[in-house]
Amino acid sequence: MVKKLANTDEMKKFINIVSGMTNDKGNPRVKKIVHRVVTDLFNTIEDLDVTPDEFWAAVDYFNDLGQVMEAGLLTPGLGLEHFIDLRLDAKDEAAGVTQGTPRTIEGPLYVANAPLVKGTARLDDGTDTGDVLFMSGVVRDLGGKPVAGAIVDVWHANTKGLYSFFDKTQSKYNLRRRIEADANGRYEFRTIVPAGYGCPPDGPTQRLLNALGRHGQRPAHIHFFVSAPGYRHLTTQINIAGDKFLYDDFAFATREGLIPEIVHQSDANKIKEKGLNTPFDEIEFDFALTPASTAALDDTVHRRRVEAA
Prior knowledge:
Helices cover 27% and strands 21% of the residues. The protein is α/β, with parallel strands linked by helices.
């Protein structure tokens, strides 16, 4: 029988050196995290008898993942981003914090500094022939009072499941806007009904999902950041009801309370009121923000954003 190494005193001393625990330089938090990760990886290699070929295949995989910038895609695919949300929910529950609109994953495709518009915005540039969608609602506090001036930062894919900036064929900030709610907390925008999409079929994320016997599809959805002074930043998204993958999202982002009804309007008078010649869809959805003073955690600091000029 091969001698177990990972938990020997000699190996523990080695992991301390690897993770910088034996010096007084560096970042203590980073050291603690690396120490835990290396310890768990050593145990995984030993417990599962990982071979050198398997080890180097994993190294090559991470190189491939980074080269095509799919780390942010794999993260939700392995449930890690959803797990972070569940932990934040559990912290709120333990602290007795009443939540507003449910949080859910951000995903990797946000771009900062979208144009800021007051009250009402049009997101699409008119080049996509998708179904017209009007979405509106009110940003409220937990007591139902409107939050005047709240910022609704919205972004979503086009009818091909592609996002501007990442898809170079789209115009700058297409399907991306920041909307400042009016004095009554109301926001509204016109856009097109987005399509769901899947991981690049030949990419490393889908390659791993194939090995797990899983698909890489997402239902149609619209992302939001909602913020206002004195309130916790809300990261969420709504899903388009009726989508084939609504409850089978590879990124595990679907949550109850985030599936508003989509109403198809074919009434001639309503079509005329909107200045259209064809039927359109409508979604009404209110956001409820949690006061920052009662938050069990600070949701206002975010990871590195894609900054666009």
